[in-house]
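To whoever is on call:

I kicked off a structure prediction for a single chain this morning and the downstream step that reads the tokens threw a length-mismatch warning. I double-checked the sequence; it's 127 residues and nothing unusual in it as far as I can see. Pasting both halves so you can look.
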Amino acid sequence: QVQLVESGGGLVQTGGSLRLSCAASGRTFSNYAIGWFRQAPGKEREFVSAITWTGGISYYTDSVKGRFTISRDNSKNTVYLQMNSLKPEDTAVYYCAADGRPRQLPLKTDTSRYDYWGQGTQVTVSS
């Protein structure tokens, strides 16, 4: 089992920044890829970004490329999502998730490929 807890969400104006954190406990965190997803009201949960177990490879959905940066600190069992130049369309509940199979490539973008999920953190961007 892997337990994930997100934090860092909040209310920010257009153009502002937030840094989300995903703290993990349980299985050896450094063996698993981590993804960030988001879900806006009335919409399906969508992929945002993912990072490999070492942090050496990352992937982003097109709408956040150049604005969001994913990183991880395995010594702290934490993955981060730095979000800059935020837009109202970034408003959503953000979730982190762990791929339950160790050291898997390629990085997954489908929610069904992730086995463990956090409870989510709300990000609201005002116009």
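Update from on-call: the warning came from a stale cache, not from the record. Cleared it. Sanity check on the structure: The first strand starts at residue 2 and ends at 7.
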